[in-house]
């Protein structure tokens, strides 16, 4: 379908919504302007002859509203309209809109996006580095899931619950690119194997060339326990994407460049500074690629898996040494960290967790934040048996303080349902779930334990704050703190 309507930029340059009377060509940008403001009820008058029946014109406008301000138009869940002719060439249209996010939720999402970008983006970064950082943040910190507490289509649910569908992946990416002033499109189409509801991904512009990015399909962690991320659908051309993605080529720029086609078979990839690290697609050797020159270097001629950057080192499972946990250090050495077979390595915005086939995982926080704020929270008593405690909550969404003898856990982010299980035996293990699914929070959860439960503070490998007889940890997801 060719685009009949005026662009939003041209509409705004002509005065925008200074008055309610518009032409047929201005229908789409006028609707987009109202949706961006979150207007629930409004009216418009269309003057002049129509190119087609009004019902068809309205349907066309709503069908392609995602091409303008998708962060707002896609969060408009339902539209209703009624119209009447008030004169020969003048029609009055009344609109009623419902939105998937409230104004407060929009404000929270915008603030949260800015906070995340402040953590993952540095001033010296190139646009390419920024795109990589945003893509990797989205894929590593979220998972594909339809069964969420809130709407799985909204960015609010996606950032709040760390779960959602392709629409949320693509809208968050587009909004972050907008905040970084990097040209980006939200693409609506279909993809092989997806439902009839369609599929959403992005196009981004780098150095004058447009590329496809499908963060949803790059998220292996939602489907496979031992892998987290791949770059198969990262900075790809039309030619590549047409194999399994389908979209209206008239609505988007052409993606002709094959500059990054060498990434198509890269999985378990991790980004650090100006390079990516990954297992070789065939030999599985530890590789390094300079993202600006695309030059690759073999760092370790051994089979590896689960490459993950943390604190300047590259951690991985060493397949040629019983899958033990290793790291490639800043000094260019492969060092064994733990002589246990690695099941998976997960890194989110604030945590780095290594899960082993046997025994407790290793978890580290990536943020030195242990200052607890004063928060009004609903208190839930933990039931204790020896050195284990558990508790549940179900009710309205609000901050919760789980409190027991010698331990407590403050969860500031509102939840409707929570289950907490704390075990202290050689390690302090904390499991936090909502609807039987592990939660990860953007804001820290404060775990307070009696100092007497910890044999030696010198043995702690996790940031903490000591207040009187208590030790306070800031955690963001399931945590295991080694005590001996």
Can you put this structure into words, describing what you see?
This protein is of the alpha+beta class. It is built from 10 helices and 30 strands. The chain is globular and about 85 Å long. Helix content is 19%, strand content 41%. The model has no long low-confidence stretch (mean pLDDT 90). Strands 21, 22, 23, 24, 25, 26, 27, 28, 29 and 30 form a 10-stranded mixed sheet that branches. The chain has a 9-stranded antiparallel sheet with strand order 12-13-14-15-16-17-18-19-20. The protein has a 5-stranded antiparallel sheet with strand order 10-9-8-7-11. It has helices spanning 8-13, 27-37, 54-63, 70-73, 103-120, 127-141, 155-161, 166-179, 215-218, 238-241; strands at 21-22, 41-47, 76-87, 90-99, 143-144, 163-164, 184-191, 199-206, 209-213, 234-236, 245-247, 270-272, 275-279, 285-290, 296-310, 313-318, 324-328, 334-347, 351-356, 362-365, 378-381, 383-385, 388-404, 407-425, 427-434, 437-438, 445-450, 465-467, 470-475, 479-482.
The helix count comes to 10
| Approximate shape | globular
Q: What ranges have pLDDT less than 50 throughout 5 or more consecutive residues?
A: none
The overall pLDDT average reads 90
List the helices and strands and how they pair.
Layout: H1 8-13, E1 21-22, H2 27-37, E2 41-47, H3 54-63, H4 70-73, E3 76-87, E4 90-99, H5 103-120, H6 127-141, E5 143-144, H7 155-161, E6 163-164, H8 166-179, E7 184-191, E8 199-206, E9 209-213, H9 215-218, E10 234-236, H10 238-241, E11 245-247, E12 270-272, E13 275-279, E14 285-290, E15 296-310, E16 313-318, E17 324-328, E18 334-347, E19 351-356, E20 362-365, E21 378-381, E22 383-385, E23 388-404, E24 407-425, E25 427-434, E26 437-438, E27 445-450, E28 465-467, E29 470-475, E30 479-482
């Amino acid at each position: 379908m060719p685009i009949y309507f005026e662009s939003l930029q041209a509409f705004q340059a002509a005065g925008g919504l200074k008055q309610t009377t518009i032409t047929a060509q201005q229908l789409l940008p006028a609707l987009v302007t109202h949706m961006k403001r979150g207007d629930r009820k409004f009216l418009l008058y269309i003057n002049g002859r129509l190119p087609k029946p009004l019902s068809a014109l309205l349907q066309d406008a709503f069908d392609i509203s995602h091409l303008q301000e998708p962060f707002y138009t896609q969060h408009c869940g339902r539209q209703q309209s009624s119209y009447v002719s008030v004169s020969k060439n003048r029609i009055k249209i009344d609109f009623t809109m419902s939105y998937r996010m409230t104004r407060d939720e929009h404000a929270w999402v915008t603030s949260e996006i800015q906070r995340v970008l402040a953590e993952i983006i540095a001033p010296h970064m190139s646009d390419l580095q920024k795109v990589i950082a945003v893509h990797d943040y989205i894929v590593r910190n979220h998972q594909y899931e339809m069964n969420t507490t809130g709407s799985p289509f909204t960015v609010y649910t996606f950032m709040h619950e760390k779960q959602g569908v392709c629409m949320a992946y693509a809208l968050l990416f587009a909004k972050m690119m907008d905040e970084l002033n990097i040209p980006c499109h939200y693409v609506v189409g279909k993809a092989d194997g997806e439902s009839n509801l369609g599929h959403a991904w992005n196009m981004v512009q780098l150095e004058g060339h447009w590329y496809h990015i499908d963060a949803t399909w790059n998220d292996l962690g939602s489907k496979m326990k031992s892998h987290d991320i791949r770059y198969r659908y990262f900075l790809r051309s039309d030619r590549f994407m047409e194999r399994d993605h389908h979209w209206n080529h008239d609505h988007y720029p052409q993606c002709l460049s094959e500059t990054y086609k060498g990434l198509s078979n890269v999985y378990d990839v991790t980004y650090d500074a100006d390079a990516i690290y990954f297992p070789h697609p065939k030999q599985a050797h530890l590789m390094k690629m300079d993202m600006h020159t695309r030059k690759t270097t073999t760092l370790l001629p051994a089979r590896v898996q689960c490459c993950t950057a943390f604190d300047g080192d590259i951690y991985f499972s060493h397949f040629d040494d019983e899958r033990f946990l290793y790291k490639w250090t800043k000094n260019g050495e492969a060092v064994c960290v733990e002589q246990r077979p690695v099941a998976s390595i997960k890194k989110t915005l604030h945590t780095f967790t290594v899960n082993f086939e046997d025994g407790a995982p290793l978890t580290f926080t990536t943020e030195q934040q242990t200052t607890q704020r004063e928060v009004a929270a609903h208190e839930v008593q933990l039931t204790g048996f020896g050195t284990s405690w558990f508790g549940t909550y179900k009710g309205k969404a609000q901050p919760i303080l789980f409190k027991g003898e010698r331990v407590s856990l403050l969860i500031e982010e509102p939840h409707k349902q929570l289950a907490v299980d704390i075990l202290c035996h050689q390690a302090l293990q904390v499991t936090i779930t909502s609807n039987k699914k592990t939660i990860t929070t953007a804001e820290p959860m404060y775990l307070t334990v009696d100092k007497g439960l910890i044999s030696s503070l010198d043995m702690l490998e996790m940031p903490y704050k000591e207040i009187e007889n208590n030790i306070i940890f800031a955690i963001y997801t399931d945590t295991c703190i080694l005590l001996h």
